[in-house]
Design a protein that fits this description.
The chain is an alpha/beta fold. It contains eleven helices and 13 strands. The chain has one domain: NAD(P)-binding Rossmann-like Domain (Rossmann fold). It is 41% helix and 16% strand.
């Protein structure tokens, strides 16, 4: 039977763009929505959309998912078979100064998506969570089976809330839902507010780089192609619910409801100083590094345990940071014309 179109929210975003490319390459009909807000330069988002529009199977709709009526109409018209919800207000530090943006986009927007799935026969909802939900946890690597009740930023709290909201709808309405905890995604067409983009711009323009936690910050950098591959493999594996799930000893990663959580990370934390050194090598320039203390809302290290993901789809991210940065640097030179 011919599949209905698939919805990708945040299609003009970094991950949404790459996932949509993969879906179109598979011959899928994709509806992409994005508000094209100005959290970062909208021209980058518009450039991504422009490339996606070259495929006739892609239909772009500018829409703010916090608009309940517009989102309801979108779902009613298209009756999506699957939904990949990647739209969100991102950024840890931005949440310290603009908390309302996170309630509007990440809570109200997600509720509207859940309602759309509930009333229009969605067969699988995949939604973006974040490694930030691990918050104050210090046991490494981070496992989906760990409790994550101590967020240290409103952004993290909003992502934890998304996981709980999705579970509620899975329990009440049997909507198969898969939460995806992304770990520091980087690569071509990345976000300007993220470390890799910021570092590259600073090195090439001779500006200083603030390196927090005095250079000892470690992040599990995950290359975008690995993220997209994992999502594509998970689409056709909606959770069924675990009949053996035990409420007296609840596993935070699964449920009797058709709901599941996965880490998607490279499982290889890198110090930011090493990442900067690789960019210095690629660009042939030395960075002006300014060592700074830890910032509010940050954590010292992230490290993904991906055993559950590997078991489910036979795949784990594995792109070496050296290879990923070489590809990113090549793209950045072309994009920035330097």
């Amino acid at each position: 039977m011919q599949k209905r179109s698939i919805l990708v929210t945040g299609a003009a975003g970094f991950i949404g763009y790459h996932v949509t490319l993969r879906l179109l390459a598979q011959g899928r009909e994709v509806v992409g929505v994005d508000s094209l807000n100005n959290y970062y330069d909208p021209t980058l988002k518009e450039a991504r959309v422009g490339m996606l529009k070259q495929d006739a199977r892609f239909n772009f709709i500018k829409l703010d998912l916090a608009d309940s009526a517009a989102t309801k109409a979108l779902f009613a018209e298209h009756q999506f078979s699957e939904v990949i919800h990647l739209a969100a207000q991102a950024g840890v530090r931005y949440s310290l100064t603009n908390p309302q943006a996170y309630l509007d986009a990440n809570i109200q927007g997600f509720l509207n998506v859940l309602e759309g799935c509930r009333h229009n026969g969605c067969q699988h909802l995949l939604f973006a969570s974040s490694s930030s939900v691990y918050g104050a946890n210090t046991k490494l690597p981070f496992s989906v089976h760990d409790n994550v009740d101590h967020p240290v930023s409103l952004y993290a709290a909003s992502k934890k809330a998304n996981e709980l909201m999705a579970h509620t709808y899975s329990h009440l309405y049997r909507i198969p839902a898969t939460g995806l905890r992304f770990f520091t995604v980087y690569g071509p067409w990345g976000r300007p507010d993220m470390a890799m983009f910021i570092f590259a711009n600073a090195i090439l323009s001779g500006k200083p780089i603030k390196v927090f936690n005095h250079g000892k910050m470690r992040r599990d950098f995950t290359y975008i192609d690995d993220i997209a591959e994992a999502i594509i493999r998970l689409i056709d594996q909606p959770p069924q619910g675990d009949a053996q799930w035990d409420g007296s000893a609840p596993d935070p990663a699964s449920s009797k409801a058709p709901w599941k959580i996965y880490n998607i990370g490279n499982s290889h934390p890198e110090e930011l100083t090493y990442v900067i050194s690789l960019l210095e090598k690629e660009f042939g320039r030395v960075a002006d590094k300014q060592l700074e203390p830890m910032q509010p809302g940050d954590v010292e290290a992230t490290f993904a345990d991906t055993a559950a993901l590997e078991q489910a789809i036979g795949f784990k991210p594995s792109t070496r940071i050296e290879d990923g940065i070489a590809r990113f640097a090549k793209w950045y030179r072309e994009y920035a014309r330097v």
